[in-house]
Amino acid sequence: MTLKRRTLLWSGLAGAGALIVGWSGLPPRGRLGRADTLPPVAGEVGLNGWIKVARNGDVLLAMPYAEMGQGVHSTLALLVAEELDVAPTRVRLTAPAAGETLYGNVAVLAASLPVHPRSLEPGHETTGARLGQWMVRKVARELGIVITGGSSTVADAWEPLRLAAATARAQLLGAASLRWRLPVDEFQVQDGVVQHASSGNSAGYGELAEAAASVPAGSIKLKASSQWRLLGKPQPRSDTLAKSTGTARYGIDTRLPEMLFAVMRHAPALGGAPGAVDMDALLRRPGVQRVVRLGPVAGSTAGLAVVAHSSWHAKQAALAMDASWQGRPAGALDSAAIAASLAQTARNAADASHGFGFYSLGDAAASWRAGEQGGAHRLEAAYQAPYLAHATMEPMNCTVQVTEQGVEIWAPTQVPEMARQLAARVAGVPLEKVKLHMTLIGGGFGRRLETDHVGQAVRVALETGGRPVQLLWPREEDFTHDFYRPAGAALLRGVLAADGKLQALSIHSAGDAITPRWMARNAPQLAGPVDLPDKTAAEGLFDLPYAVPNQRMAHVATQHDVPIGNWRSVGHSHNAFFSEGFVDELAHAAGADPLAFRLGLLADQPRHAAVLQRAADKAGWGQPLPAGIARGLALHESFGTVVAQVLEVTLSDGKPRVLRVVCAVDCGSVLQPDIVAQQVESSVVFGLTAALYGRIDIVGGEVQQKNFPDQPLLSLRECPLIETHLITSTRTPTGIGEPAVPPVAPALANALFALTGQRLRSLPLTLAA
Q1: 145, 485, 564 from 488: Cα distances, Å
Q2: What is the structure's pLDDT at 27?
Q3: What is the pLDDT of residue 1?
Q4: Looking at per-residue confidence, does 224 or 14 come out higher?
């Protein structure tokens, strides 16, 4: 029989379709791993892909997540200690198996789906939202992208780590049962020692581990929160001593025998390149060994790296460099022109009702067109936010050694596997020849989701004859060649009925999309030819909790070629300022108290209402304040966590001075309350810095802010009293590293309006003289 080509094609497609349908019906693959997943080490026994037990009874936990001050290493070790019934000090961290997909962050990809949070809530969930999450989780499990970001670490590790620890415990108890021929349910475990009271038998985990590796775990039951001995209570952080004594090792602390140092100098203009350079003069400078030309790497601007015996010699030579520089071939970038374009784009989208609609309900456009009929009142406001730099305390750095054996990297990175993949491409070696040591990170905020500095360091190390080299970016390079938080603009329109109730709300925003640009730089194998709608561009606008019968939230994705990236709280960081500032305007136009107005829109959102009410109660909302002080509030949900803030503000020499910040937080089950409070305080300081001082101006293609004197941080003297009040919850833990950032700017702006009568709609917040 002869098969026609068309018949063969359709048969193949049908078969592939059947496989896809069959695969999609299966649950996501498990993330437990095997006993041999982790590399073998003498004196250690692997029980699964996350847990090993040492001969002395210590528990070794594979740690793919980056520690950048958010405390996840402490919290995740505590999760394991709780399920295994060992002291937290007995849990040690070890490197995960390289290239193993079970360590991929499923939660961060699942959260990238642009669905309204309400559609995932019990009683309100939609089939489409649930199916979408199901499929994204399956795909994420197969991709295995190792990433620390999106306030997702605890949410991602919550199930797999507890399951891994509980499974290991069951195997260890099973080994004791076989040894003593006694039932498991008669055993007790205290600090890693299995005991049988009536017989007097006891054995430590270290004694049982080898036998346990071949014992089936049986059915596993995780501890209920009512059984927790460690979680939910204040616990010391595991890194406190090392960070207090200066023995903690960050990427910039890496020191290796015969190490060289390289300092980066990019072309001043974004997208520019070095021209002629007086190499002879550079090589005559003390300590200088060589100069390496670097083209664009993973989105970076081209430049030069000066290699010397010390970082001081390299930096001095880089600063004294006699070079000509070329501009961006497509023309110089200008942030003021971009801001004007974004504002006009948002207005055009609102007038024509276009842009990608992330959420709609009823007919907001018809409500707006109906105008002032029936005593309704229309309100319109335009908001804007600038580009922002990350300004991490630890400047960008990476140490690399390239030898015949392969490439070895020491890097403070949030994406270790992407860094390995880039290193392999730059060095021209197989991926298995690249080994990466993930160090502590002195501030990430999304900047270390990028791999440009890793690629640059590998390129330099290829020319150092096998000697290790540490590439450093001076602070000025860090400010002027960042991947910035995108500038954004939004036009917001609301319609108030005669009784003051909000009848319609439409928001049309404009700004560059982060995810497509980030993927093209760092995961080119996943980047497509066409940009898909990017949730990060509209989050904080389309996912509001307020009950408004007519809504439309749309975004116009622009592309202005300024290098952009993820910044702490991403789109929420400025979109919350737009939405919560405008809600305050609507309350004022309705003649309503800002708290009462919001609560009136939250009748069907008890979680949000409870958080808002808690913040208001703790702040004394409605109680009189001394003259010259006013309050403002804001409510926002991001990364699954609901935060309400009330700020008390005054003026000092005509400038805003925040005196007190009251935060109420619902982040699900609280595992370490002290760390939650630390992250809230950190977020408030970070948010106030951005709200008062943060901006990046680009003139003639060059960033104008060069260092902290140009964009200061909030000083200790300016730091307000910060109170954190946690809502008791049994929900799965949600994010806490970022959610307290977004409400800061709108709460401050709303307080300044209450104090001065000036409505500030652009960041940073600057009062008129």
Answers
A1: 29, 9, 12
A2: 64
A3: 38
A4: 224
Mean pLDDT of the chain: 95
Q: Give CA–CA dist 568/685, Å, rounded.
A: 12
Q: What is the dihedral of CA 311, 314, 315, 321, to 10 degrees?
A: 180
Distance CA 638, CA 543 (A): 9
| One-letter amino acid of 508 | H
Strand order in the sheet with 550-558: 356-361, 550-558, 502-512, 488-496, 377-385
The total of other beta-carbon atoms located within 10 Å of residue 636's CB is: 30
pLDDT tens sequence across 475-526 = 999 999 999 999 999 999 999 999 999 999 999 999 999 999 999 999 999 8
Structure tokens at 127: 């089939």
Residue 104, token pair as written in the block:
């991929």
Q: Is 703 exposed, middle or buried (0-12, 13-18, 19+ CB in 10 A)?
A: buried
| Strands 469-472 vs 260-266: parallel, antiparallel or unpaired | parallel
**What's the rounded Cα separation, in Å, for the pair 672 and 551?**
38
Distances (CA, A) of 404 to 74, 226, 401, 433, 468: 37, 55, 10, 10, 13
Percent of the chain with pLDDT over 70: 96
- Which DSSP state fits 598? H
DSSP code for 373: G
Using an 8 Å Cβ cutoff, are 376 and 497 in contact? yes
**CA-wise closest residue to 572 among 151, 129, 105:** 151
Amino acid at 364: A
Distances (CA, A) of 357 to 535, 537, 542, 543, 571: 11, 12, 9, 12, 16
3-state DSSP helix/strand/coil % of the chain, to nearest 5: 35, 25, 40
Distance CA 691, CA 209 (A): 53
- pLDDT tens for 119-143 read 999 888 999 999 999 999 999 999 9
User: 166 and 86 in contact (C-beta within 8 Å)?
Assistant: no
**If we measure between CA atoms, which residue out of 349, 390, 696 comes closest to residue 489?**
349
Pair 252, 397: CB distance under 8 Å: yes
The three-point CA angle 114-116-120 to 5° equals 105
The dihedrals phi and psi of 220, each to the nearest 5 degrees, come to: -115, 135
Pairing mode of beta strands 188-190, 193-196: antiparallel
Q: What single-letter DSSP state applies at residue 32? A: -
Kindly give, in sequence order, each residue whose CB lies less than 8 Å from that of residue 680, ignoring residues fewer than 6 positions away: 643, 663, 665, 722, 724, 736, 740
b/e per residue, 253-285, with b = 16+ CB within 10 A?
bbeeeebbbbbbbbbbbbbbbbeebeeeebeeb
Q: For strands 641-652 and 655-666, give the pairing.
A: antiparallel
Residues 264-279 have a mean pLDDT of 97
Distance separating alpha carbons of residues 364 and 372, to the nearest angstrom:
14
